Fold this sequence. Notes:
Blueprint: E1 4-5, E2 15-16, E3 36-44, E4 47-53
Antiparallel strand pairs: 1-2, 3-4
Amino acid sequence: FRIALLLSPHDSEPIVSAPSVVISTLPGGAPASTPTIVRATPADPTRVSLSWAAGPFPNGPILSYVLNLNELPHGYTAVK
């Protein structure tokens, strides 16, 4: 956009500002970054309590999260 200033009706040309800088953002959609797990605490022998923080580039409001739990490959053990 630009701003024009007309000082008096007798001036033939208004004073016009330089064009503003164009800033583009990504459209809303899937986040461009993943959330970070902040804390994982054992609640009991069969449950874990997780806390996480949203990623730095959400591309709009976060509507929901999907948590995937994967089994360890054969031969690997979890650190306790």
